[in-house]
Amino acid sequence: MDAHPTIFHFVEGIRSKLDAAGFNEITERDLARLRRGGKYYLTRNGTSLVAFRVGLDFVPGPDAVNVVASHIDANRLTLKPSSIADSVMGYLQIATAPYADGGNNTWWDRDLGLGGRVIVKRRGAVFSKIIRLPGIVGSTPTLAPHFGAMPTNLEQMPVVSTLGREPTPTVREKEAPLYGKHSLRLLRAVAKAAFCEVDEILEWDLEMFSAESARIGGLDEDLLYCSRMDDKLCSYSAIEGLISASEHAHLVQMVALYDNEEIGSETRQGARGNLLDVALAAVFSSLNATTDERRQTIANSYLVSADVTHAGNPNYAKAYLENHVPLLNIGVAVKRLGRFAGSGVDAGVAQLVSARCDQKLQYFAPRNDTRTGGTIGPMLAAHTGMPTVDVGIPIMSMHSIREITGVHDVELGKQWFATFLAEPIYIAN
Ligand code: ZN
Ligand code: ZN
Fold first, then answer.
1. Nearest ligand for residue 390 CA
2. Which of 185, 236, 289, 331 is least enclosed, having the fewest CB within 10 Å?
């Protein structure tokens, strides 16, 4: 989590993990003929990914696909397309825009790093580079309580230097595409991190994020303090689950990780995009499946939508529905009622998986007088037609800059996903 702070870093990290586990990268432009027994992965925009293993005896029609789907995007402060700001009191600030709940009150006075993707043009070729500026780059300071009421405003910006005055640009820098849109000192720092010149930078997707390291703590070292767990936690556990799951000759075992869940998923790289269809079509056409066989396989398939869920918070016990409060270090929870996918049949499937891996299935359901966030479960169920259940690893402080989970919950999640992926789910009609 420390080494992969942005979604770009995280997808790169998963790629290396999959490469090391013998998965082969395929691209949408050049879909290779996939083989039974093969392991593959596909990325889109550098921010979404589908990884899968085709069973050695997989037969389209009677056989099934087991999918775990989650989202990788997290709340953040995105740099504005023009992040330059007039210097106030001599400071240098960077103008940022909230992505989902990024920049909420928990983001104030926090150590922020800066990084993401830089689009570089060199000798006619355009490529992207994933960078991170070293150390802590800034923070948005609060006002002392002495001043009385201190309204916060999302247009207030992180302070990144006491030296607000801009340096003198070189002739080349003056002609750079981003010159005048961002502080020259920021442009130079980014160019240095990307090993390029300021005028080679065409654009970027840069953000500010919590630079605080993940820590294990608590009196019994049973708590894990970390940023961006919603939802790099289920994404990580699902990929680890796929890599460690026992292979099944008659299954396609698949993990789909999406971008943009926090802003509604309706993007090319989001869960409303067609990346899952592309991956499934690649399997089916490689094995010469007929339309009927594809439909039969989908009907036999099962999808687990994994997104962190609200662990009970003892200081706000009344916010929770009694008897529906997941706790830390126990295991994965199924989500019922609210805006979640799945019926009693699907909760039964979750019970089955928990029993198979010796976990006690926990339940989350919202009170009638509260609302909870949505997940990608319902949209994927509606789109694919696969029966679907919504589950999650419990965390506290969801959408805070710093979240908390149990130290065993990462492993419990991994076991649960690996167990689900290992066996087909048969549901009588
Ligand atoms: Zn969220
Ligand atoms: Zn989430």
1. 2
2. 185
171: CA distance to ligand 1 center in Å?
45
For residue 333, give the nearest of 301, 302, 366 by alpha carbon.
Answer: 366
Q: Backbone phi, then psi, for 316, in 5-degree steps? A: -135, 40
Q: What's the angle, vertex CA 247, arms to CA 241 and CA 250, rounded to 5?
A: 125
Q: To which H or E segment does residue 133 belong?
A: none
**pLDDT tens across 219-275, in order?**
999 999 999 999 999 999 999 999 999 999 999 999 999 999 999 999 999 999 999
Q: How far is the CA of 230 from the centre of ligand 1 (A)?
A: 5
14 φ/ψ angles, rounded to the nearest 5 degrees? -70, -40
Contact of 6 with 116, CB cutoff 8 Å: yes
Complete DSSP assignment for 23-72: PEE--STT-PPP-TT-EEEEEETTTEEEEEEE-TT--TTTSEEEEEEEE-
- Give the whole-angstrom CA distance, residue 151 versus residue 164: 24
Separation of CA 197 from chain center: 31
Higher local confidence (pLDDT), 150 or 176? 176
Which residues line ion ligand 1, judged by CB < 5 Å?
A: 230
Asked whether the CA dihedral 193, 196, 197, 198 is positive or negative, the reply is: negative
Peptide bond just before 292 cis, omega within 30 deg: no
Residue 277 confidence (pLDDT) above 90 = yes
Between CA 310 and CA 391 the distance in angstroms is 11
pLDDT surpasses 70 at 429 = no
> Is residue 63 within 8 Å of residue 300, measured between CB atoms?
yes
Q: What is the pLDDT of residues 347-399, one digit of tens each?
A: 999 999 999 999 999 999 999 998 878 999 999 999 999 999 999 999 999 99
Tell me what the pLDDT averaged over the chain comes to. 96
pLDDT value at position 263?
97
